[in-house]
Structure prediction request, 802 residues.
Amino acid sequence: MTTPATAVELPAKSPPSRFTIWGSIAAVVLTVVTAITVEFSFLEIVENLFRRNLVVEGLLRPDISQIWSERSARAFVETLQLAILGTASGGVIALPLAMWATDFGNPYPALRATVRTFNAVVRSIPDLLWALLFVTAVGIGVLPGWLALFFFSIAVVSKLTADTLDGIDRGPIEAAQASGASLTALLKTAVVPQILPAYTSFLLYGFELNLRASAVLGLVGAGGIGARIEFFRGRGEWSEVWGLVLMFFLVVFLVERLSVSLRRRLV
Amino acid sequence: MTTPQVPTRPVDWFRRVGTIVVVALVLWSLLDLEIKWERFVDLPADVWRVSVLMFGQMPFSETGKLLAALWESISIAWLGTIMASLVAIPLSFLAAENLVGRPIAWVTRQVFNLLRAVPEVILAIALIPIFGLTPMAGVLAIAIGSVGTLGKLFYETAEGIQPGPIEAVDATGAGRLQRLRWGVLPQLLPEYASFVLYRFEVNIRASAVMGLIGAGGIGNDVAQALRFKEFGTAGLGLVIIILGTIAIDYLSGRVRRRIIFGSSSASLLKKPVAVA
Amino acid sequence: MIRLVDATVEYPNGTRGLDGVTLDISKGELVVVVGLSGAGKSTLIRAINGLVPLTAGELYVDDRPVHQMNRRQLRDLRAEVGMIFQGFNLVDRSTVLNNVMMGRLHHLPTWRTLFSLYPSADLDIAAESLERVGMLERAHSRATALSGGQRQRVGIARALAQQPKVILADEPVASLDPPTSHAVMQHLQSINHSLGITTVINLHFLDLAVTYGERIIGLRDGRVVFDGKGSECTPAVFEGIYGRSLTSGDTLSDEAPLG
Prediction:
């Protein structure tokens, strides 16, 4: 036991312990300042929501006749295919990209920094922005959509994979290094088997996200059901818009059910 | 003596079938989509051309205006996330089976699932006719879109509360409010704060997208610039989006780590302590 | 100090945690309770501070009838009974000091505890408790930064901060390694000797029970099957309590034989 001073006194309090207080204050201040910036007004929200408008009326009477329309059906299939291609192409590249950002997968610091920067940049650009950029570069159609989803998938899957790689067991890696294996052999035998179940699960998750993203790509002209939604929105035909959204929900729901049961089998 | 044979590997049918299905789907997509393959060939040249236009001559005089727009995007994301949290926290208690019982919890959870399924962009284009091309449309779209995810994270945490610390508070003779403050909240609040910050990071990207369709923020400036072929401005805007997002990710990540793990300096002692 | 008269606790599924237990523990005694898991040790400890109510029988702590108390009275009772847990049950992300101050929760108005504004008198009590377990200089460390033994000492300090008349310890060393277990038991023993606080400890390891328990109570199927001095405990006695022959899992250190 330690020897006390003459009176038992608590040691002086160190400043960092007030983190919670300062953090909460900062959060409140931030909220107030941002509210001013966007001219937040509760009154306005309530007023606007209760006015008559086409959007809500369309929502209450959705028109699902589009299910019979060949164009819309084609657009749905396109959405699905874009999601599949995007996930497959981007997801595959995401694995090496994630591994090359780690210290054991990339022994050259400069190269590692480059890969990490590339990953960070790719992850900072949202899906629709990718789409807009590629539409600008190559014109409208499904190609920019695929390219956008390619990068989007890299962003999603590589982030998840990288986080998992942070926590893997280094033991097998050490063993492979000790046996003098080449980098590729090391990755293939010591790393990939460890993360394969998680990685496949991430691919499935990425597919779900891709599906949702590809639905809206059409809003900027990059293919999929988004174009049809935009078509009806432009004409103010909200019943049709909500009808399409409802059908889209159904597809997403089915895919999610399937994905969840598949993912359970993997883990 | 015969040499021992390695036994043949049993066939994993699940894997085999799975792989075949996936490959088939990919090939089907590839061939069925109406991809103009000629454009594929031109792709590198096109990308190069646009990149030069966008990053070759960035009008740095526009930086101020674009930074202000970035701040608007950050505001939209932050407000949307906070609004969603304020709604999601009480709702999440209605979704915790250990608090309200199975039926009510199930209903609330389905509400969360429904909200999670809607892409925020769809919400935004529905809200724009109601609120106009203003940031408020973006804030609400993000708020509604985040309630589902946050609610799910919140109730899962609420269900995982440990009874031990709560028992400890009871054992000191503390009252109900103190039990909440010292037994329940310390287990919940740090996790909740961390989820909110994480969602904020996600929503920064969403708010850039909100801007692309006109609901305010820097996405708006970039989309406009591209429409009017002001590629330099668009390029600068893109760079600012990238740098801003990375910066927010980094800061938010630091704060989250501090919340969950505490500052490392507080745990290091200058003087040695007696063992055990 | 603690008196049970034909106390019974029956759980909804029919099992009896306590079955007609009659016990008398005097002020200042250090009692160790042993028995198999499910024999009633946990139930006994939690019955004493009312966390588990009696189904039948009587229980008096400090001559107060616990079996008749309402919520308010139970809280007042618990304020005078300190409890130490196997899992420590600290608030992980709080500091050591805040954890110890939880021992003063009952004595402080709610608003003070909501905002952690503690009067200096209570801080002094906390400081003394920490000093007694040797954790004073870690007062501002986060609980997560401590080892198991250190956390349990904070748990003891928290119980001490209540300035209790009784200390209950539910398997306080089950999660700790041998040297740490002995250190913690020594803290409990010295607190009992110097402050005269009645102490009841559940233990799993029989060698620890014999070393530190002046009086040992053996429970089996909710009934008291042994009540005597540590010196009377031979392996045969323990086998009677357990209903089976002893294994190496019943003692903390492998080499020291019992008895």
Observations:
- Chain B touches chain C at residues 164-165, 167-175, 177-178, 181-182, 186, 190, 261-262, 266-267, 269, 271, 273-276 (CB under 8 Å).
